Amino acid sequence: MATADAEPEAETTAEGPDAEGPDEAAATPATAEAEGASLAASGEEAEYEADLEFLRFLYKEFVFKGEELPRQLEIDDLNWEENRPIVRNLVLKTLKMLPYAATDQQELMNLSANWADDREFADTLFKQTLVDDAKFEALIGGSVQNWDVDRVALLDKIILKMALCEMQLFRGIPVKVTINEYIEISKLYSTPKSKQFVNGVLDKLAQDLAASGDIRKSGRGLLDNQ
Known about the structure:
Layout: H1 2-63, H2 68-76, H3 80-97, H4 115-131, H5 133-143, H6 154-169, H7 175-189, H8 194-212
GO molecular function, one term: RNA binding
Family: Belongs to the NusB family.
Pfam family, one: NusB
């Protein structure tokens, strides 16, 4: 009786563990494989991020700050000094956003969010500045007190004429934005004193042209003549 009673208990006890055992045994390799793949992917991504950081370091310290490579780039590109900050920003932004699945066909980020619109803006501004050159020359001459307009640096006159054209032609761009942008251009390309000269002339002419109605600003978030 004791033996007979013990056997069913043994069978019952055996059925419990044995019933769950095969499932656990079957699940364990798959689970381990999934976890291993996840860890491997995580490790690869971590290594990828480290590689990107190393690339950013190389570009910052050797391509854009070094001596030998920038010198060679200047030989290949006469405008390198001007293009350098633009290229630097594009490269670093591209590396920052470069996806893990990127291939060797990956391109740099676009210079402009909408190049077609930007090109149309530049073309229109350039052509209209040439069309109205005589008018802008007269405006500049009338605003420069005790100073012959012919003595104004040529680059300063070009900057002033383009700014005046932008003020009058593009009604959606605030006057203050235009003035500030062309002051920055004068800092980069003209003489050390040009920024004060450009600022003074544009500020005076902007007020005069707004008062005469030749500058009118309109559009969302803009008041006329602002």
